Each structure stands twice: as structure tokens, then as C-alpha cells.
């Protein structure tokens, strides 16, 4: 009798996937590069990309860009606050426009993520 590893004991369902030869070869090669079995590689890809509802690459890239933009806006706001606290005047109109643009872009991305 073949004894299952502790990790495999909780897995009770088989999923069969048919691939063209070239895609199968790519999957086998990638699994080998990562030092895992083809089964583990396919399971990892499935869980990371589908079951966890990870955003598509383009959305993740856009969110990363927005994060950088919001960080820059925050820095600008801190600089403006520093100037104002020193009793001087500071132009805030561009920072407000940047905040509004980032807010609009964020809302559009969120609309794309919702089912």
C-alpha cells in the first residue's frame, strides 16, 4: 500500500487538465525550474490566480502605480502643512487636482474588479 504524505492526505479530489504538447512542455519546464512536481505547480498556479481572486496583472500594476502616486501626494501634503504651520502660504490647487485624479482612477479600478 502506498502511504500518502501528510500534505496529500487532505486532498481528496482529482482535477484533470488536457493541454497541447507545447503548453504541457512549458508547464513541465516551469515546474522543473521551480523545483516542484507538475501537480504542485498546477495547483499553486490555480490557487494563486483563480481561487484567491487575485487581481489581473494590469489591475495590480495600476494599483501599484496609484500607490506610488498617493505616496507622492501625501509627501506634497506634508510639505504644504509644514509651510502653512510656519505661517507662510502654499499653493494647494495642484495637490487637490492630483488627489481627485487618483480618486477617480481608484474608483474606475474598483468598478472593474467587481463581478
Describe the structure.
This protein is an all-alpha fold and 115 residues long. The chain has 2 domains: 36 residues, no CATH class; 57 residues. 68% of the residues lie in helices and 0% in strands. The chain has 4 helices and no strands. Helix 3 packs antiparallel against helix 4. The chain is elongated and about 70 Å long. The mean pLDDT is 80.
In short:
The protein is an all-alpha fold. It has 4 helices and no strands.
Fold blueprint:
Layout lengths: L20 H14 L3 H14 L5 H29 L7 H21 L2
InterPro entries: NikA-like
Protein name: Plasmid mobilization relaxosome protein MobC
Pfam family, one: NikA-like
Describe this protein with a few key phrases:
115 residues, mainly alpha, 4 helices, 2 domains
Put simply, the count of helices is 4
Shape descriptor reads: elongated
- Percent of residues in helices comes to 55-70%
Our Rg estimate from Cα atoms comes to 24 Å
Structural class: mainly alpha
Region (Disordered): 1-22
Pfam family, one: NikA-like
Protein name: Plasmid mobilization relaxosome protein MobC
Amino acid at each position: 500500500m502506498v502511504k500518502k504524505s501528510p500534505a496529500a492526505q487532505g486532498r481528496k479530489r482529482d482535477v484533470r487538465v488536457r493541454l497541447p504538447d507545447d503548453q504541457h512542455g512549458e508547464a513541465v519546464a516551469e515546474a522543473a525550474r521551480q523545483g516542484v512536481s507538475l501537480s504542485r505547480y498546477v495547483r499553486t498556479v490555480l490557487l494563486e490566480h483563480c481561487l484567491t481572486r487575485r487581481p489581473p496583472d494590469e489591475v495590480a500594476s495600476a494599483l501599484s502605480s496609484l500607490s506610488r502616486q498617493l505616496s507622492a501626494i501625501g509627501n506634497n501634503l506634508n510639505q504644504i502643512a509644514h509651510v502653512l504651520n510656519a505661517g507662510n502660504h502654499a499653493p494647494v490647487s495642484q495637490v487637490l487636482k492630483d488627489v481627485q485624479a487618483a480618486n477617480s482612477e481608484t474608483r474606475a479600478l474598483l468598478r472593474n474588479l467587481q463581478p
